[in-house]
Design goal:
With about 400 residues, this protein is of the alpha/beta class. It folds into two domains: about 150 residues, ATPase, nucleotide binding domain (Nucleotidyltransferase, domain 5, 2-Layer Sandwich); about 190 residues, 2-Layer Sandwich (Nucleotidyltransferase, domain 5), CATH 3.30.420.40. It has 16 helices and 13 strands. A hairpin with a 2-residue loop joins strand 10 and strand 11. The protein starts with a strand and ends with a helix.
Length: about 400
C-alpha cells in the first residue's frame, strides 16, 4: 500500500488539487476546477500513467452542486475510486491557508480550535481566508475520518524580530487591530531556502545568509539566515513591497488621500486600482505577463522596457536592503514563474548589484530556465563572493510533507 497526501489549494472561484507521495514528491493525481460557484464551473484531472508521468488532462464530470462542497465531492469521489484501484492510502489532507496572523508559526492539525483561529484572521485576508475555510469545511464534510492539516503562507515569517515586523503607527493599531508586517509566500520561501542550502552543501549551517526571491504575478523577498526568516518585503497585505503583475508594491500612503481629493474615489476603489490596475500592467499598459513584456520590449516598446526596468530596479533595491538583517549575503535565490524563467529580469537585477560581488555568468543564465542549470552565477576571484541560484519552487510538496509529518 502506497501512502499519499491530498493537497488542496482553494481560491474564491477555483480549486487546485493534487495527490502527492510525501516521500519522493511524485504527483499521482493533479487537477484544477475553475469558475467554482457559477453555472460555468469546469474541472480537469490528470492521472499518473504506467511510465510514471502524468497523462493528458481529461474533463471531470461534476454534479448539480457548483459550490466548493459540491465540486470537491465530485473530485474526491473520483480520487477515492482511483486510490482504491491502485492501493493508495490517503493518510491526510493538506490545505493551503493564506493568513494565519500571529496565531500560527507552523502548520497545524485543523481541529475546532484551530479553525476558530483561522476564522479570526478573516479581517486580515477577506478575499483569501473565506475561500480557504470553505475548502477545509468541504473536505472535512466529504472526508471526516482523515486528518486535515493547515499550512499557512504567513507562518514562516513569524520568526521575524519585532523591529522588523512593527510599523511606526499608533500602538493601538498594532495591539487592537493587528497592524504589522506578516509576509506571504512563506511556504515557497521555506522550500527554496532549504533546497538552496542543499545545493550549496550547507544544510546545517546556521550562518547561511540567503535572500529568496519569489517572483511571479505576486512577488516577495525574504531574508533567511540558517533557515529562519528575518525580514520580508510583503506586509499586512500582499500589496506592500515589490512591483508585481497588477499590484503597485510600495507607494507613498499619501497617494490614497491625494487621489481621493482629485477624483472623489473612496479608499476601497483606490485600493482596488493599486491591486488590479497597477504594477507591470499599469506601467506598460500592455500586460501583467513578463513574457509578453519581454517580447514587446525586444520589439522596441518603450513602456514595456520601462516596466521591466522599474521591476528590476525595485527588486535590486530590496535585495540590497535585505543584506542589513542578514549582515551580509551568501546567495540570492530566484524562484516563481518570473524568477525561474525570465533571463532578462535576472540580467537587469543582478546588473544593479555588482557592488555586492554578484557577477552574472551569461552562458549559465541563458541555459537556466525553470531551474535547469542550477547555479547561474560564478564567484569572482575574491573568496566569499555571493552567488545566485535558480530553484524551482514546490509549495505543494511542503504542504504534503507537513501534513504527513503531523499525522504520522
Amino acid at each position: 500500500m502506497t501512502t499519499a497526501v491530498l493537497v488542496l489549494n482553494c481560491g474564491s472561484s477555483s480549486l487546485k488539487f493534487a495527490v502527492i507521495d510525501p516521500e519522493n514528491g511524485s504527483r499521482m493525481v493533479t487537477g484544477l476546477a475553475e469558475r467554482v460557484g457559477t453555472p460555468d464551473v469546469a474541472a480537469t484531472i490528470k492521472f499518473v500513467g504506467t511510465d510514471g508521468a502524468l497523462g493528458a488532462a481529461s474533463a471531470l464530470k461534476l454534479g448539480a452542486e457548483n459550490d466548493h462542497r459540491g465540486v470537491l465531492a465530485a473530485v474526491l469521489e473520483v480520487i477515492e475510486s482511483w486510490a482504491q484501484e491502485h492501493s493508495v492510502d490517503l493518510v491526510a489532507v493538506g490545505h493551503r491557508i493564506v493568513h494565519g496572523g500571529e496565531a500560527f508559526a507552523a502548520s497545524v492539525i485543523l481541529d475546532d480550535t484551530a479553525m476558530a483561529a483561522v476564522r479570526a484572521c478573516i479581517p486580515l485576508a477577506p478575499l483569501h481566508n473565506p475561500a480557504n475555510i470553505a475548502g477545509v469545511e468541504a473536505a472535512q464534510h466529504v472526508l471526516p475520518d482523515v486528518p486535515h492539516v493547515g499550512v499557512f503562507d504567513t507562518a514562516f515569517h513569524q520568526t521575524m524580530p519585532s523591529y522588523a515586523y512593527r510599523y511606526a503607527v499608533p500602538t493601538e493599531w498594532a495591539n487592537e487591530y493587528g497592524v504589522r508586517r506578516y509576509g506571504f509566500h512563506g511556504t515557497s520561501h521555506r522550500y527554496v531556502a532549504a533546497r538552496a542550502a542543499q545545493e550549496l552543501g550547507r544544510n546545517a549551517d546556521p550562518g547561511l545568509r540567503l535572500i529568496t526571491a519569489h517572483l511571479g504575478n505576486g512577488s516577495s523577498l525574504a531574508a533567511v539566515r540558517g533557515g529562519r526568516s528575518l525580514d520580508t518585503s510583503m506586509g499586512l497585505t500582499p500589496l506592500e513591497g515589490l512591483v508585481m503583475g497588477t499590484r503597485s508594491g510600495d507607494v507613498d500612503p499619501g497617494v490614497l488621500g491625494y487621489i481621493h481629493d482629485r477624483t472623489g474615489a473612496d479608499v476601497s476603489a483606490i485600493t482596488d486600482d493599486l491591486n488590479k490596475r497597477s504594477g507591470l500592467l499599469g506601467l506598460s499598459g500592455i500586460s501583467n505577463d513578463m513574457r509578453t513584456l519581454d517580447e514587446a520590449a525586444d520589439s522596441g516598446d518603450q513602456k514595456a522596457q520601462l516596466a521591466i526596468e522599474v521591476f528590476a530596479y525595485r527588486l535590486a533595491k530590496y535585495i540590497a536592503s535585505l543584506t542589513v538583517p542578514l549582515e551580509g549575503l551568501d546567495a540570492v535565490v530566484f524562484t516563481g514563474g518570473i524568477g525561474e524563467n525570465s533571463r532578462t529580469v535576472r540580467i537587469a537585477t543582478l546588473g544593479h548589484l555588482t557592488h555586492l560581488g554578484l557577477r552574472l555568468d551569461p552562458h549559465a543564465n541563458q541555459r537556466c530556465v525553470g531551474g535547469v542549470g542550477g547555479q547561474i552565477t560564478v564567484a569572482t576571484d575574491e573568496p566569499g563572493t555571493p552567488v545566485a541560484l535558480v530553484v524551482p519552487t514546490d509549495e505543494e510538496l511542503v504542504i504534503a510533507r507537513d501534513a504527513a509529518a503531523l499525522t504520522r
